[in-house]
Amino acid sequence: MKKIRIIGYGWLGERIASSLSGKYVLSATTTTENKADQLNNKGIHTVIASFPDYQLTEPYSQWSDIENIDVLIITVHISEKRCCVSSLYNRIQNLSSFIGDFKGQMFLMSSTGVYPDFPKEFTEEDIPWENVPGERMLRNKYPQLNILRLGGLMGDNRLLKNYNISNLDHAVNHIHYADISGIISEMIEKKTQSKLYNVTAPIHPAKSQVINAQKNITEDEELEVKGKKVLSSKLVSELNYVFQYPDPRTFHL
After folding, report:
1. How many domains, in total, are found in the chain?
2. Does residue 211 belong to any structural domain of this protein?
3. pTM for the full model?
4. Cα-based distances in Å from 48 to 6, 35, 63, 125, 154
5. What is the CATH number of the domain that holds 42?
6. Three-class secondary structure assignment of the chain
7. Residues 12-66 pLDDT 10s
8. Which residues pair with 155 in a beta bridge?
9. What is the pLDDT of residue 131?
10. In this structure, are residues 171 and 205 in contact, taking their beta carbons and an 8 Å threshold?
11. What range does the domain containing 29 cover?
């Protein structure tokens, strides 16, 4: 049974772990002692780790037994939108010290936020990983890294109707967490390496259409959907992946 480690057991990390549980041996990191205790009691070996955006006096010790791990899934935020490039460099250096010279299969949960807010259909070729500092720093150190640019994370308690939303006639670029887990599982089984994929549901309704579906409001009129659409057609073509939730209007069902 393959051994998988998840760096960052937050909202998404928890759901990925739940999907992979039973098929793989799981371990994880979290940022609090209380949560680490809870996960250890569930049989998920967990250590406390966070990756600050400043240079540490003493570098992180390498995560024990990392050389015997088959798959590493990174869900912590690696984005220059959250910090300047120098701070981002420090964060990635701290992360790299923790995982060392890892040679196994790797996944980085990136974001479709790398694409500008233009009314256009975006593919991975529009902004290659070399042009995104966080992706570039990690891929240069770990050439085998798979980069998954995730759309807005939805499912369970995350519903668009619960948020204060603007530009209601603009398209959504959402993804159900079950499909993220499904795509990772597919790539693990196929031993996929060094890929860059957009991960969004293939149907892009307007925000208002998603909200109305969640409120059980019937729409009679056709709506011109505006804004950007981030396409996952490369993923579908190369993995032959069939989405469990292709339409964000059904994420709540």
Report:
1. 1
2. no
3. 0.96
4. 12, 9, 11, 37, 26
5. 3.40.50.720
6. CCEEEEECCCHHHHHHHHHHECCEEEEEEECCHHHHHHHHHCCCEEEECCCCCCCCCCCCCCCCCHHHCCEEEECCCCCCCCCCHHHHHHHHHHHHHHHCCCCCEEEEEEEHHHCCCCCCEECHHHCCHHHCHHHHHHHHHCCCEEEEEECEEEECCECHHHCCCCCCCEECCEEEHHHHHHHHHHHHHHCCCCCEEEECCCCCCEHHHHHHHHCCCCCCCCCCCECCEECCHHHHHHHCCCCCCCCHHHCCC
7. 999 999 999 999 999 999 999 999 999 999 999 999 998 988 888 787 789 988 9
8. 158
9. 96
10. yes
11. 3-162+174-202+230-245
Nearest C-alpha neighbor of 44 from the set 72, 58, 63, 25: 25
Confirm if 147 and 192 have CB atoms less than 8 A apart.
Answer: no
Residue type for 172, please?
A: V
